[in-house]
Specification:
The complex is a heterodimer. By secondary structure, chain A is an all-beta fold. Chain A contains no helices and eleven strands. Chain B starts with a strand and ends with a strand. Classes of the chains: A mainly beta, B mainly beta.
Chain lengths: 112, 120
């Protein structure tokens, strides 16, 4: 069974641009989560989508947004990129909470 | 206040020996879950083990066991018979229960991690 997949693996953008990161959950999983892992800041919860709706949001500015599609895949958009947005962005999926979350390999975003 | 505390930035263990990675947590919820994840240098987070707050038995998964002491709010990971491939960053995480409206928070809150190095 395929795990969580993310694309692209690496993304290089300049400050002020927009980035789009994609995630496909494990088949049958309806919940998708996004986390940011920035150097020195640990893993921070960004967003949770379930059945196409945003269910919870972490302490991030509105320029971090996303959506979940009818096939449960998800997109994370980061507008007006700042240097401190450089991080590993991890997507996870689960059956509806409180089940364990399974992570993808991540997208490494570099903002120059 | 930090909700998940991992006090060991780094740990060293000899191959084939057991090692305990510490994790303490803070929550006022009665219903919560505790998780351990492994993150090798490749970056992917690998789920290892889960303990529910109402589970009476300590969770075990192969060489991994979770030493759950609810009164002390600790959830230490024990890795038995360490292998070289166990060298990685290990994260403890907590999923709190439900808000007043009955909606699960869904999110995981992670500790800062412990780097484990297994020596041959």
């Amino acid at each position: 069974e395929a795990g969580v997949t993310q694309s692209p693996t690496h993304l290089i953008k300049t400050r002020g641009q927009q980035a789009t990161l994609r995630c496909s959950p494990i088949s049958g999983h309806t919940s998708v989560y996004w986390y940011q892992q920035a150097l020195g800041l640990g893993l921070q919860f960004l967003l949770w989508y379930d059945e196409g709706e945003e269910r919870n949001r972490g302490n991030f500015p509105p320029r971090f947004s996303g959506r979940q599609f009818p096939n449960y895949s998800s997109e994370l958009n980061v507008n007006a990129l700042e240097l401190e947005d450089s991080a590993l962005y991890l997507c996870a999926s689960s059956l509806a909470p409180p089940n364990e979350q399974y992570f993808g390999p991540g997208t490494r975003l570099t903002v120059t | 206040a930090q909700k998940i505390t991992q006090t060991q930035p780094g740990m060293f263990v000899q191959e084939k020996e057991a090692v305990t990675l510490d994790c303490t947590y803070d929550t006022s919820d009665q219903s919560y879950g505790l998780f351990w994840y492994k993150q090798p240098s490749s970056g992917e987070m690998i789920f290892l083990i889960y303990q529910g707050s109402y589970d009476e038995q300590n969770a075990t998964e192969g060489r991994y066991s979770l030493n759950f002491q609810k009164a002390r709010k600790s959830a230490n990971l024990v890795i038995s018979a360490s292998q070289l491939g166990d060298s990685a960053m290990y994260f403890c995480a907590m999923r709190e229960g439900y808000n007043a409206g009955g909606t699960s928070y869904g999110k995981l809150t992670f500790g800062q991690g412990t780097i484990l190095t297994v020596h041959p």
